[in-house]
Amino acid sequence: MERRKQNRTGKNIFVFLITSILLLIIFLWAVNTGSIKLTALQLYRGLFIEFDENVAAVYDLRFPRIIIAILVGAALSVSGVLLQAVLKNPLTDPGILGISGGAGFVAAIFTIVFPASIYFLPMAAFVGGIAAFFLVYSLAWKQGLSPLRIILVGVSVSTVFSGLSEVFQTMGGQNQTGAASIVNGTIAMKTWEDVKIAIFYIPIMLLISFLFIRWCNLLALDEQTVRAIGINVTYIRMTISIVAVLLASIASSIAGTISFLGLIVPHISRILVGTNHRVLLPYSGLLGATIFLFADTVGRVIAFPYEISASVIMAVAGGPFFILLLRRSEQYGS
Amino acid sequence: MEVKQLSFAYRNKRKRKGSYLENVLNEISFSITEGKITTIIGANGCGKSTLLKLMTKNLIPNHGKILLNGKNIRRINQKEFARMVAVVHQNNKISGEMTVEQLVSYGRTPYYSFWNGDKEKNLEIVEWAMAVTNIKDYRNQAVETLSGGQRQRVFIAMALAQKTKILFLDEPTTYLDIRHQIELLEMIQTLNKQYGITIIMVLHDINHALYYSDEVIGLKEGKLLLQGKPDEVITEETIEKLYDIHLKISYHNQRKIVQMVR
């Protein structure tokens, strides 16, 4: 019996290791995609030892989007795990729940109205995200939350918000690149300024989310059982939701609406490392970073010299996956 | 534990706020003797489950109060309450996989603060709870893979890990075959005799109530019909009043047996 437990831990360490190596490989690939090519050694020397023109160019042009892809991927995936735990519904993610749509909408308006206050952008996005979340939550509530109703309401609210975003983008003029990149969900034009925001907010929120691992595990039990062991269920649901919405909103304010990432990653993670959030939550972050960086890099390569945005890649690859999940799950299939 | 003039009605959800359906419980008063096994019996819909929910803070009474050590349970916060009273509900479900040991260890939750907990003591108590309920052999197994009887024992172990003086069980024998029913009730009896845990449970089988409890509380249409030692208060007449059916009582080794057929 003890051995089985050790096997599990061993397997998890192995999965973590493989995914980390994969992330590193994709990272090097992403660095080397485009007109300038660099070897790992060259990169290392150029970054830490001596000035190298090519490395400097890559550093300015490619690094921001790579770092943002990694952080945004992690944030959206962890947000997905948290939301699925809170709603006890494996078919939700920040996109389906309208959080990304609401956050993106407010963020787009904010960049048009206050183009200089970029550092407060995530806060503004959070306001939109939380508003959308509570809107969906209360509209879907009818003596309890039916998983199907929450998806339908979420998709509707989300569509309305993305439509509104388009309206504001068109009204604000096409040259509002900040707003446009949020609406279109592209991270191609990101600079170190954007990285500063992401690197300030996302790691902090990820660490905070790890504080709620125990609560996430408890939510697998019936509500009355959780209450019986002295936990205020409503309170922990609210707290975890707010953290999830914050993560998703920050991600959306930087990278726009990205569908399906927060849905797919937790599912694959559960298959690979099990349902214990102690492992699931950090692993989803790692896998989310890997997959989103992969999507972004594929988008740069697949139609070279044109670029397809990571959100489009996610939408195209994620849609079929979502349908597959719907068909496979006994609960919602009928 | 003392229940004083307790009344409860569910909200009428179809009408506007403040309107209530008919009373489910009507001015019920009784007290639970410490260190005994008390069984609540009565027909379906007589208010047993509602009473249990009220006594475990899952519902708030409209009138009257429930006292625990002289203190109204509404004034006791959830966490503190969970260190005094444990509950095993019916039809416990788990989403996702969870090992037996993991589930039992969640019973220690009321003793955790946000930052730390006495890890060694917690482990020790989890071990004890698993030993008492005899589930150590499958500690690393997923709870969903267990049989009904094993599952029920696991949830009781989780409640035991809370180390409370009072344990509530809502129809613990439902869905179990006769052997597992009796094994479970004997285990509950051991918990009471050996560790002095006050047991309050809802049972459907009158013979089980007769054999395994020190006190019986009988409810009929939201009113308290009887309370006392099972041998004294369970008679052919009271059964007829409680369940609207006439059943014969015979004796075996000078103990009452209710004939469960007409």
UniProtKB/TrEMBL annotation, chain A:
Molecular function per GO: transmembrane transporter activity
Predominant subcellular localization, coarse grouping: membrane
Organism whose genome encodes this protein: Velocimicrobium porci
Entry keyword rRNA-binding: no
One Gene Ontology cellular component: plasma membrane
Membrane topology according to the record: Multi-pass membrane protein
InterPro entries hit by this protein: ABC_BtuC-like (IPR037294), ABC_transptr_permease_BtuC (IPR000522)
Keyword Iron included in the entry's annotation: yes
Domain of life: Bacteria
Known function: Part of the binding-protein-dependent transport system for heme-iron. Responsible for the translocation of the substrate across the membrane.
PANTHER family membership: FERRIC ENTEROBACTIN TRANSPORT SYSTEM PERMEASE PROTEIN, HEME-IRON TRANSPORT SYSTEM PERMEASE PROTEIN ISDF-RELATED
Protein name as annotated: Probable heme-iron transport system permease protein IsdF
Intracellular or extracellular location(s): Cell membrane
GO biological process: siderophore-iron import into cell
Transmembrane residue ranges: 12-31, 63-83, 95-114, 120-140, 197-215, 235-268, 280-302, 308-326
The entry's keywords: Cell membrane, Iron, Membrane, Transmembrane, Transmembrane helix, Transport
Similarity section: Belongs to the binding-protein-dependent transport system permease family. FecCD subfamily.
Automatic annotation (TrEMBL), chain B:
Location in or out of the cell: Cell membrane
Recorded topology in the membrane: Peripheral membrane protein
GO terms classed as biological process: iron ion transport
Pfam family, any one: ABC_tran
Domain ABC transporter: 1-246
Top-level lineage group: Bacteria
Keyword Cytoplasm: no
This protein's UniProt keywords: ATP-binding, Cell membrane, Ion transport, Iron, Iron transport, Membrane, Nucleotide-binding, Transport
InterPro entries in the record: AAA+_ATPase (IPR003593), ABC_transporter-like_ATP-bd (IPR003439), ABC_transporter-like_CS (IPR017871), P-loop_NTPase (IPR027417), Siderophore_ABC-ATPase (IPR051535)
Alphabetized GO MF terms: ATP binding; ATP hydrolysis activity
Residues spanning the membrane: none
A GO-annotated cellular component: plasma membrane
PANTHER family: FERRICHROME TRANSPORT ATP-BINDING PROTEIN FHUC (PTHR42771:SF10), IRON(3+)-HYDROXAMATE IMPORT ATP-BINDING PROTEIN FHUC (PTHR42771)
Name of the protein this chain belongs to: ABC transporter ATP-binding protein
